[in-house]
Amino acid sequence: MTEEEGFEGHGKHQRHGAHEGPGTPAADGGTAAGHGRVADGDAQGAEPGSDARGPGEPGPPANGGTHRNGGMDGHGDSDTAGNGATGRSEDPGDGRPADPGTGGDGSARGPAGPVTGAEGPGGAGRAPRIPTPRSSVEDSGMPLPDPSPVTAPPVSPPALVLEHRVLKSLLGAWALAACSAEETAAVEAHLGDCGPCADEARRLRQAVGLLQRPESLDLDPALRTRVLQSCLDRRPPRIPVPDWVAPFDAEAARLDALLQDIGDSEWHAPVRLRWFDGTGPTSRRTTVAGVIAHLLSVDGLVAVALGLDDPLGSVNGEEGTPEGRTEAYWRASHFPPTRSVRGPWREQSHNLVRTLSFTGGDTGTPTVSYGGFGLSLRDAMLDRAFECWVHAEDIANAIDYPYEPPAPRHLNSMIDLGARLLPAMLAARRQAGLAAPGRTRHLVPAGEPGRTLRLEIEGSGGGEWLIALDSPGAVASAEHEVAHVALDGVEFCRLAAGHVPPEEAAAGQVGDREAIRDVLFAAASLSRM
Amino acid sequence: MAKKDAPPRWDRRMQQRLARGEAAALGECYDRFASLVHGLAHRVLGDEEAADGITREVFVHVWEHPESYDPKQVPLRSWIAMLTHRLAVQRLHAAGTAALAQGGQGTPEDLERRVRQASIAARADFIVTSMPVPLRAALERAYFQRRDYRQTAVDLDIEEEEARRRLRLGLQLLSTAHEAAPSGVPPEAGEAW
Question: What is the ipTM score, two decimals?
């Protein structure tokens, strides 16, 4: 997870970012020793600007570090072959002495072919050269310009005199072509006189060839499910993750994978949280990191119910509502949340999954208090899975990444939760005067059948749900169906997340208009911050 | 998750939980290491599907044989990387051998060389992702962002001498990628890294 953070490339496309074009300093780093040009097959060694990191290659500077004096003849061969190896090259790396002035080993170049025989005038090219500026021909796809002919080097800089200690300390920077022209010249002059330094220089140069962009971190989220399933098929777990925790586990992993790939600045990208407050759409501005802080705060409701640490600590979340807790968390920190919030969020989500695996399907499960209302542990975990997906999508939209809906099985459980919560929400709205009064003068007694709306959800993860309209205690029944609404599963979830206005939601509707309107508004009212 | 220097305690606990058959531990283990595993396998095999396959094999092994990991010997992360490396190199070798047997191009020597190259590249990747963050950050600046060491020092708010030191040390670490047993076979050879 965080390992990769050092490389901000966090590249979706790890293939070479900026790499040296021809004639860049990296390229001619090894000049004094005359490591040959490999790019153009011109085997004349001792060429300034012999391009070490070629365009299109993440830049092994060939074998540029072959320094004539580095005792190469002693052991160079195998090393060189190995080095060539790094360079994805077809070069047979035939173990010929890595003579200075040979065309390196062509490692950077790929199939350009062996550059052997290039016992160029290597040794001749001792004169220090001024590296050309760090231009950026890289990745331009342009043909490599011919390096200038082996004429007299340009003006030599005044020789720099450095003590051995300093020269040695410069070897890394030198190998990376990350020091000044004068220092480069001084180091290279020194390499002619100092065996140990030359030896190290050669090794470090080879090492540069091993630097590559980290592989793409984009793992197919479905791979997780497949891999874990293969494992569990082979060895059934003694302590399984309960089915009803699986959606949360999967959604948290998906979101975490998204977060892994985003850069520092994207953590501060603005996000607008949107929901439906009962009468109309409302929203709150935050950032990507702020969204994770929100998830952390509200997942904390379940943590508290399970006796785990409250992420809010001593901070007092007003009334313990999701919104109150979130605002309290945001307020409590002096600075806006940063990517550092990812760790605590992920740790808590792992802890929840783990703890619930142990408490299992225990019937005496505590109720999770959401402030104004409560949910069973099972439903709370489905709710958290749902919220995790919804907010992951908010984040993905904010930073312009694609994000898929949950697996159909999980989507189905989330829809089911929404459908089950609808009757109570309808009743609450009715009580608040936001929905039409029930048709019957008296409440339908608990357990008795009442008017019913058939909710048909299309698409993967869909199904049919009968919604009791008259009271949460009434039994929904097909015989008492007064209306039928059909809509897509993801659309229903967007409605329940408050992202779609109820007036615009449904696809197909038949029957009692008022009942349909009430149900759609109730669905939107399930949404929270 | 500050895992950079995750204490060995985490490794030990993870091993115990896996041994106990806790499915949640398997998920956590996957979450922590899957991208490492997949990345290394992909570096060796250069193929998405093959990397997926290795990822499955690695976690199946971890789940079926958690006792084969000894937290006292090596960090879990390294152990998993070695396992990945070994399995991926084996697969590359097997695929290459099969191709040769069917009259594919190249010689066994070519194959050996290819396997060795892939092996070194994967090891180098692992070294880079495992090295201390300050060293990695310096290399990142100097190599990928093409900053010279003075600019690197400014970027990282360190002395120039320290920048030079980090670049040199980082490369020294990286150069050890060449030192392990070169060939992918026999299977245990991978352990040498």
Answer: 0.83
